[in-house]
Amino acid sequence: MVRTRSTQKNPAGSAARSRKVAKSAPAEPADGMEHSLLVRLRGLRPTLSPAEDRVAEKVLHNPRAAANLTISELATAASTSETTVLRFCRRLGLPGYPSLRLALAEESAPQRIRKAPASDISADDSIDDIIAKIAYIDSSAVEETAGQLDRGALTAAAQAVAAAGRVEIYGIAASNLVGGDLQQKLYRIGIHVSATADPHVALTGVTLLGTGDVAIGISHSGTTTETVEVMRAARQRGATTIAITNFPMSALAKAVDITLTTAARETKLRSGATASRIAALTVVDCLYIAVAQQDIDRVLEAIAETRESVASHHQS
């Protein structure tokens, strides 16, 4: 998702260089990579009302069964009204309930279903169960993130980063691990980049940004107060701001110019940031390669030179 904005005057004056960032419209998904209705629904859940969320729970729990229900039956199952179900459909960008049933029927068709583990991680799981469930969750996060990733937003983000005088990356806890990975990749191809998890350091850094610079905020939930604050500050300085988040209607997404969304379903053991980290790293890899493609000959030369610089530190 790309937002247009009027470029604010850069308080840093001549220290910033002005570059035009393409604000292209989102491209169509590649063949076989549809924007999944269920992926969109999971991303919207934090913004739904309690009654709408009960409808979402029924739909996500068993899409095939929900597709076979009349609007009255789904409303009753979710302990709500038909009006709420219709409002739920509109939140998903659908004109009415028949469109929801058709979309659910298509997504739950046998050829589109990949065998999923029967439950979340439990105390009774064997090692084989754990491996199978984690492999399913992580691979689903990668596939669904790739399927719904906004091509126009990714292009605009890559162009901004490739042309940036300076790039600041910010994320807390597991998001900082993702930020560190992006920093390492961009650093090796000659991008002036830094990453931090310290909100004071981040606010200090973005204060020195201006037009032509880029700030990237990473937060799975999109609700981390410090990350939102840093992105707002960067935007006020005239920098192009980019978010990597799972929720397109989150506070972080609303605070930036360009949003790159993930599609991760976490297990109950969320503190480890498992699938969300894998999904965010997928976006990071796509962004890095898209940036590198902007000047691929120079990038290949930089990679070769940086590899050679540490060659003597590897044992044969």
TrEMBL record:
Cross-referenced InterPro entries: Homeodomain-like_sf, HTH_RpiR, RpiR-like, RpiR-like_SIS, SIS_dom, SIS_dom_sf, WH-like_DNA-bd_sf
Gene Ontology MF: a single term: DNA binding
PANTHER family according to UniProt: GLUCOKINASE (PTHR30514), HTH-TYPE TRANSCRIPTIONAL REGULATOR HEXR-RELATED (PTHR30514:SF1)
GO biological process, one term: carbohydrate derivative metabolic process
Domain HTH rpiR-type: 35-111
Biased composition (Polar residues): 1-11
Lineage: Bacteria, Bacillati, Actinomycetota, Actinomycetes, Nakamurellales
Pfam families: HTH_6, SIS
Residue spans crossing the bilayer: none
Coiled-coil portions: none
Region named Disordered: 1-34
Superkingdom, taxonomy of origin: Bacteria
Designated name of the protein: MurR/RpiR family transcriptional regulator
Domain SIS, first and last residues per copy: 157-297
Keyword terms of this UniProt record: DNA-binding, Transcription, Transcription regulation
Record CDD domains: SIS_RpiR
Taxonomic source organism: Nakamurella sp. A5-74
